[in-house]
Amino acid sequence: MPPRPAANSLKVSEVFHEARADYDAMRTSQFVRQRQGLAPMGGGADYHIRNESAYFRLVEAARDASRNDSIIGKTIERAALNVVQNGFTLCPETGDSGLDTALFDRWLDWSTDPEQCDVAGEYSLVEQLQLATEATLTDGDIIGLGTREGQIQLIESHLVRNPRKKDPERPTVIGVELNEYRRRVAYHVRNESLDPLRSSFAQAGTRYETRNAAGERQVFHMLIPRRTTATRGVTALAPVFYLEQMFEDVTFAKVVQSQVVSCFAIWRYREASDTPSSNLEATVAQTGARERERQSDGSERMIDQLGPGAEIATRDGEKIEGFSPDVPNPTYFDHAKMIMSLIGINLGMPFVMMFMDASETNFSGWRAAVEEARRGFRRIQRALVERWLTPIYRFKLRQFAADDQALAKALADNPRLAMKHVFRPPAWPYVSPTEDAAAGLLRVRNTLTSPRRYHGEQSQDWEEIATESVADNAFAISAAAKKAAEMNLQHAGVDGWTPITWREVLSLPTPDGIQVSLSPATNQAATAPRTGGTTNAG
């Protein structure tokens, strides 16, 4: 029988095989820190919010930062304003122009009246969108409940909690009940306490089905998930929470330091004398708050609080030298800008937008930062459309059909077509109007894009613009023709009067590259290619 390999050699090879890692990040070292809270063998996004009380502590901490810190609250508010602006425009596409107009008018009437669209009668739909966006960035998510009366009830995230007695047959993640496919089945909502001194945690809860009998959502959940297994949202401040706190602390310390070094004081120094220190302290005029301090040897001494114009007397034999540092020091501004930039990245707001100050960059740098921020705003706009506006519109459509026979028939005949629509999100004005308009004109004229696609990029409806443009031009031409006929009739017997047409009364823009000349003899417009000058960019 051949000799067996040494036990130590087998152990070393096995250990070496198990210790191999193809990524340096897999091995903990002095350069790779040991991260806490990781799932031992991998886990879903809900693993990291498995502790409900810790989750809501984070929510309250984020709310406190938004409420009290100097830049967080206003940055979140401005990000939401860029996303929502004046609201989203509904464009029904049922195939019936009359029905589309009726739905648009009815939706506009409902969404702009707080009494109709808010259960509290306080907020229009645009204001609800603003609050929902701010809550999503601050708290992580927010839900709305559709009521039988057709109004929306806003529910803040801390009210969506697990039921007091969890049913093992109904998996629930912080108030959201799921089935085996992670489909949201129901939401458990605690009643809001109207007494600000009482917590809503002790209130009774209600279970709301996610969808009604018709299969339409009646619970609208706004969040921006970063993983497919994320049931609840997480505040956008989570990655920079410690940075934000430290920034506020450092800023406060710098302000206090600036106040201290801005004070002046007179230090009165005396040589050692036979006068006891206690008697000397008694003879010094008090210039501010004074307190006693017990020393290690059991004796006491008086401490004068420092203030502007203070006169400070030292003990016998003591000499105090002042120190005046640079406040703030040169590196403070770069450090502060870096911290604020990191906070802005997580909130989707570049530095130039957070502080509305582009003095440290040129126009191209400012424009690039704004364009990049708008990509993030568009993502939130899509989430608002998909998770908030579209479910609410479908929910309301069923209610509109209750007293609208045409809509009820359309829903019965072809519900998918009757519900077809588009929400046009708000756009932003041109950063450089002349250049951007010229670029758009060039693209459309050279068929690099179609008019409907170009206007869609600007959150505009090409059919609506074309229809309005034709109607406006027709009105202008008709009025000009009528006025020209009146003038010809009025001046018919005047010597030298030449009959005019509507073109002389109405001045319309000429096509690009064309110049017009009028001949008094023939009164005809002759056109010729333009040989000089610049192209009209619109």
For the CA atoms, what is the radius of gyration?
A: 36 Å
Mean pLDDT: 82
Taken from the alpha-carbon principal axes, the silhouette is extended
Distance between the termini: 96 Å
Helix content: 40-55%
Uncertain parts: 521-538
Helix/strand/pairing category: alpha+beta
Any key phrases for this structure?
single chain; alpha+beta; four-stranded antiparallel beta sheet; 17 helices; extended
What do these coordinates show?
The protein has 538 residues and is an alpha+beta fold. The chain is built from 17 helices and 15 strands. It has helices spanning 7-19, 52-68, 72-84, 97-111, 114-117, 125-138, 241-262, 277-283, 330-347, 351-354, 363-400, 405-413, 415-418, 433-445, 451-457, 462-490, 502-505; strands at 89-92, 141-146, 152-155, 172-173, 176-178, 184-190, 205-209, 219-223, 265-268, 290-294, 300-304, 310-313, 421-424, 514-518, 525-529. Strands 4-5-6-7 form a four-stranded antiparallel sheet, with no helix packed on it. Helix 2 packs across helix 3 (72-84) and helix 3 (72-84) packs across helix 11 (363-400). It starts with 6 loop residues before the first helix and ends in a 9-residue tail after the last strand. Mean pLDDT is 82; it is low at 521-538.
Topology summary:
Elements: H1 7-19, H2 52-68, H3 72-84, E1 89-92, H4 97-111, H5 114-117, H6 125-138, E2 141-146, E3 152-155, E4 172-173, E5 176-178, E6 184-190, E7 205-209, E8 219-223, H7 241-262, E9 265-268, H8 277-283, E10 290-294, E11 300-304, E12 310-313, H9 330-347, H10 351-354, H11 363-400, H12 405-413, H13 415-418, E13 421-424, H14 433-445, H15 451-457, H16 462-490, H17 502-505, E14 514-518, E15 525-529
Helix pairs in contact: 2-3, 3-6, 3-11, 7-9
